[in-house]
């Protein structure tokens, strides 16, 4: 069933598309390819709050995974762990990145392997702005982020 | 598009300078109240473990002596820290070019239960081919971690498990002496000079 949701040939630089909800804009939504569906996938994105009211990302949902949730990689005394992030602040006038080594969406229970070039939808829920669904571009396992230089930012 | 927070900026001046000099990032400076604080990784020659590489060949610490060595701990079920570190290491090796052929570069799996040599081989095929995956019996992985003063623990999570583990990249001189650590959240600009220091 998921195969209908995953497009096998995403347009180039899918991750550079910008989605908006209220004062928030959401872009650079990307993921890393997985080997099989047993390992958890990951979800990264950037949220900019152009408004004057603080907001927060409080949840993610996707048909690509049974248990998507927000995590934060923290390094304490040199040891990395990934506690749940109940709420990721998106302060007024600021940008927040879910990016390698920090906040990320953890896609546990993948319904199918994520292959480079695929895309899948993720719905982000914000405390005040509500919901917005974005297309997530699957980059290689080695990727460190999308290249959006030509996206006219 | 690197967005890694540079933890070094968050350190106090003196503590920061000291930690940076020692190449231990915030680990050492923040760890002083903990048991084992200040313990440096052993020289490679004093380590003891018997592991297998991702091609199925045995590896012991003595095999590393004579070439500079770069090691980190991780596991292939790890979605964030490990692919990020492997990408970074792949980039560094690419930047160093053929000079990096002289390095021993190893990922020691802290999840030998799932990371068999075959699993490691498939995973590592996505990164620089000079990175060697090591796995083996859990007591041998524990012996290896002890030599590096590294830690790992298994954590039940959502009906499955994940691993907390030491995230820095360990660097050793060709004679096996400990050189420095590239901390996970350290500014990546400092990585190449540290690696060049063990190549000289
Ligand atoms: Cu996570």
UniProtKB/TrEMBL annotation, chain A:
Pfam families: PCuAC. Keywords: Signal. Transmembrane segments: none annotated. Residues 1-15 form the signal peptide. This is Copper chaperone PCu(A)C. Coiled coil: none annotated.
Automatic annotation (TrEMBL), chain B:
It comes from the Bacteria. PROSITE patterns: THIOREDOXIN_2. CDD domains: SCO. Gene3D superfamilies: Glutaredoxin. InterPro entries: SCO1/SenC, Thioredoxin-like_sf, Thioredoxin_domain. Residues 40-200 form the Thioredoxin domain. Keywords: Copper. Pfam families: SCO1-SenC (PF02630). Belongs to the SCO1/2 family. This is SCO family protein.
């Amino acid at each position: 069933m998921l195969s209908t949701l995953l497009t096998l040939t995403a347009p180039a630089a899918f991750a550079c598309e910008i989605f908006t909800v209220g004062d928030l804009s959401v872009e650079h939504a990307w993921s890393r390819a997985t080997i099989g569906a047993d390992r958890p996938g990951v979800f990264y994105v950037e949220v900019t709050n152009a408004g004057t009211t603080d907001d927060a990302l409080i949840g993610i949902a996707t048909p690509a995974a049974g248990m998507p949730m927000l995590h934060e990689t923290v390094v304490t005394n040199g040891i990395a762990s990934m506690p749940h992030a109940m709420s990721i602040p998106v302060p007024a006038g600021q940008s927040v990145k879910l990016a390698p080594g920090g906040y990320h969406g953890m896609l546990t229970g993948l319904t199918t392997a994520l292959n480079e070039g695929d895309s899948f939808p993720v719905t982000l829920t914000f405390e005040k702005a509500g919901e917005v669904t974005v297309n997530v571009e699957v980059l290689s396992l080695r990727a460190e982020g999308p290249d959006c230089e030509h996206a006219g930012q | 598009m690197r967005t890694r927070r540079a933890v070094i900026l968050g350190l106090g001046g003196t503590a920061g300078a000291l930690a940076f000099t020692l190449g231990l990032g915030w680990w050492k400076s923040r760890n002083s109240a903990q048991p084992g604080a200040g313990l440096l990784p052993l020289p490679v020659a004093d380590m003891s473990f018997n592991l297998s590489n991702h091609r199925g060949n045995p590896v012991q610490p003595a095999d590393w002596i004579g070439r500079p060595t770069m090691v980190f701990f991780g596991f292939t079920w790890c979605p964030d820290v490990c692919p990020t570190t492997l990408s970074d290491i792949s980039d560094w090796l690419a930047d160093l070019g053929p000079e990096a052929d002289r390095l021993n570069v190893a990922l020691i799996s802290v999840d030998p239960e799932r990371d068999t040599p075959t699993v490691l081989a498939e995973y590592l095929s996505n990164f620089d081919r000079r990175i060697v995956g090591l796995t083996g019996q859990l007591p041998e992985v524990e012996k290896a971690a002890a030599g590096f003063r590294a830690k790992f623990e298994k954590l039940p999570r959502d009906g499955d498990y994940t691993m907390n583990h030491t995230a820095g990249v360990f660097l050793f001189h060709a004679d096996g002496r400990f050189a420095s650590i590239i901390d996970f959240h350290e500014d990546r600009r400092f990585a190449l000079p540290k690696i060049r220091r063990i190549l000289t």
